[in-house]
Amino acid sequence: MTLKLPMMALAGFVALGMVPSVAAAADTAAEQFRDQFLNGELTWDDVSARARQEGEVNWFHWGGSEQLNSWIEQVAAPEMKKLGVTLKTTRLAGTREAVDLVLTEKQAGRGVGEGSVDLIWLNGDNFYTLSSQDALFGSFAEKLPQSRNFEFDSTDPRSQLNLSDFGTPTGGQEMPWSGEQYICYADMARLPRQEAPADFEELEGWLKENPGRFTYVKPPHYIGNTFVQTVLYAFNPSGRGYQDFQKPIEEFTPEALAEIMLPGFEYLKRIEPHLLPVYPQNQQANQALYNNGEVDLACEFGLYLVDSYRKTGAFSETTETLLFPNTGMIKNKNFLTIPVNAPHPAAALVFADLMSRFDMQASKLEKIGYPLGIDRWKLSKQQQETANSVAPSHFGVTAEDLAAVAVPDTNASLVKVIERVWQAYIERKSDKPFPEIVLNAMKAG
Amino acid sequence: MIGKLAPWQRILLLFFLFVIAGPFLPVAVASFAFRWGWPDLLPSIWWWERRDAAPFPLGWDYIFDPVSRVVPALGNTLLIAGLVTLIALALSIPAARTLARHRFRGRSGIELFLTFPLIVPEIAVGIGMLFIFISLGLYGSLWAVVLAHLVPVLPYMIRVLIPVYRELDAGLLEQAALLGAGRRQTFFHVELPLIAPGALAAALFSVVISTNIFLLTFYMGRGQIDTLATLLFSKVSGGGALDPVAAGLTLIICIPGFLFLALSHRIIRENVFSDGIDNS
Fold first, then answer.
1. Domain of A286?
2. What InterPro entries does the record tag this protein with (chain A) (predicted)?
3. Do A226 and A261 fall into the same domain?
4. Taking CB atoms and an 8 Å cutoff, what residues of chain A touch B218?
């Protein structure tokens, strides 16, 4: 006998605890709700009522910031409670994990109303993955009451920031939540502003005198890609800067694309011997190089990054934002999306709407330095003044300076090509002719 | 006891103490830092100098604030590690005992099979396991997490226990039986005390492994069961420097292991047969 009895008891115990939640049949009520909402057959009151019935909403977001986590608990959750919904959040190490969870559930047959994830905070690749796997709830953004705070009219070129996510059309399947701009920062105690480079030629000259004092995040990480794109814009021989890079890949011959990219890539090759001989893997690793005094300036997305990091002590109190490169600093937005199998779809819509409300956007800007995701010109005069007065400092540059040099992202269909060209031309030091490298990168899909 | 050591032994002891405790020092200092950057040997601004001025909880204040979820996560971690260890022991002891004591066809094959989960990386197992768990409708609960943790834990435990049973003198068990002990008495009063040190070592493996599993916990808990590992991963996955909260969490994630060490130390010190075997 010895151990058999206790073992069997345990096994039975384990089994009992697990079996109850056997997969249910398709949630037809949720499916019906989705179809009716997307067809415009429901009023907002209907949605709010169903949200209160659902009672909770599960939001998955990157959880590495104490400021963000605290703001959610202190501001977002109580507001959501007022609307009759309990906000539950999952703090992710990487947004990819939430995407994988959604896709695996979908693959296992969990459809509308049957998944685990109601909303994900994301942009770029992760949105593209969900979109291309047909794993999104649908075109909801323009149907929310607070959509009035956004420019969704595609005839207005300013709507591109809301309708295009790293070049992927959003199709209203995600709601802008926050805006960002690619900035560089430096410690004024080590690199005084008047000595800091303002454009890429000055960076090259500065690097020759200060070898190894700068590097950029390694592509294909999006922070590194964005740096490369900024360089390509600046050296575009057509003189049209970012504009050529807004077009989808179908509109380019390999020769034409090679022509506008060559000077930028030649520049990257030229400065490589003067860089710190390591490309950091991500922005955190780059920050560590900066904080360890190995580099004097570093670049990543973060309009108010310097302010937030000075408040947490992650950056020195002499760190300031640079207006670099003044040839164009890429601006984009990040979004809230609802997956196809969201278990509480109405509550998810209510949450997306709440996050787009002016008071929430202003609070997020003031308390944690997350830029407005809503569009300023859509706001009342009073709201604009409030937004200006609560905005944290950029330290050393003004909002006008930054807005004046803002340029859009590269078209997503070109991003992969640029990545591959960087890997071939810079990383592997391919000695093939440049047009051939571009051709191969385009052929790779 | 240290007094009896030769000088070279003392130096060696100091060296090992330093190697073991050394890595904890900068982490402990970092957890109390506000600003610690190059070229300062120690933080230039400490946490307590800024904690009152901060608009949100800083460092240890954040860790002990409910918003950090550290307390429920510690509870979940201990509960999961405890359940995993108990179940794993219940499954591993008979398995190791059979594999160590009996010769049968395919034994080495089974031994190899039992180590497979050690060879396949967690990330490869994760998605596949999630898929199976969803299909069976058994994910999203604490029990699903426990079951998932057993997969990487069991191979270690069985591997540790097999040599324990190989070295166990079966004669002692026969003597007990000859002296009239029943099978149950023999197991609980002779066999179990004899394998206790080995079983505790195996249990320590289990506690430490379970405490640190991130991906399986995330998937099987549908992202809704916080453990110390899931909290820590959301802080350190970027690969940058340890910020004060990450440093504090790193120290806290050591708690289950230390608790277990303290506990097992007490058990082992109550020497195997110190209270005799006749008082049953």
1. 192-295+411-443
2. SBP
3. yes
4. 97, 101
CA distance B139 to B119: 24
Q: Provide the domain count of chain B.
A: 2
* Residue range B66-119, pLDDT digits in tens: 999 999 999 999 999 999 999 999 999 999 999 998 888 888 899 888 888 888
Interchain CB distance below 8 Å, A313 and B33: yes
CA distance A122 to chain B (A): 15
The chain A residue lying nearest B37, using CA atoms, is A291
Q: At A204, which amino acid appears?
A: E
Closest CA to B78 of B219, B186, B210, B272: B210
Of the CA atoms within 13 Å of residue B164, those in its CB half-sphere come to 24
Are residues A260 and A244 in contact, defined by beta-carbon separation less than 8 angstroms? Answer: yes
In a domain, B277, yes or no: no
A59 to chain B, closest Cα gap in Å: 10
Nearest Cα of chain A lies from the Cα of B220 at a distance, in angstroms, of 10
pLDDT tens by residue, A178-217:
999 999 999 999 999 999 999 999 999 999 999 999 999 9
Of A72, A7, A315, nearest in space to A185 by CA: A315
Domain that holds residue B119: 69-269
pLDDT in the model for residue A14: 41
| Tokens (6 digits) for A244 | 């050529």
Cβ distance of B37 and A117 shorter than 8 Å: no
